[in-house]
Amino acid sequence: MAAVATGNGAFQEEEGTGGDAAAPQPHAPTSAPGARLSRLPLARVKALVKADPDVTLAGQEAIFILARAAELFVETIAKDAYCCAQQGKRKTLQRRDLDNAIEAVDEFAFLEGHLGACISAEPPF
Predict the structure, then answer these.
(1) Distances (CA, A) of 63 to 20, 40, 42
(2) Among 6, 57, 64, 105, which residue has the fewest nearby CB atoms (within 10 Å)?
(3) What is the pLDDT along the chain (125 residues), one digit of tens a residue?
């Protein structure tokens, strides 16, 4: 048997012809035409960056990288908060799940004490 990469980048076991098979090479997932590279609106990210008085210019690559970093951050904290919700035998995230995730994960220590101010504050837009 040999592992063969499927179109979405996953590997699938397949009957081979025998002999020594080369190690499977991961392939980049193919994207559909018109697929977005970022799930966050880049114009909104750019507006947030420009709201900082210390920033004078921001290139498109920098905006894209910041948007991608924000996506990964939100995904990570959401997964950790969801684990906290599952421990309480729930599927719906609640504020206390975010609080528990922030307390449990050292990487989120910078958020301790700030989440309440962020949630109750008016959005900047």
Answers:
(1) 46, 11, 7
(2) 57
(3) 444 444 444 444 444 444 445 555 444 455 555 557 889 999 999 999 999 999 999 999 999 999 999 999 999 999 999 999 999 999 999 999 999 999 999 999 999 887 665 655 555 55
- First-to-last CA distance in the chain? 56
Given the structure tokens 């050292």, which residue do they identify? 106
Separation of alpha carbons 81 and 34, rounded Å: 32
Q: What's the whole-model pTM score? A: 0.62
**Cα–Cα distances in Å, from 57 out to 64, 66, 84, 101?**
14, 14, 40, 35
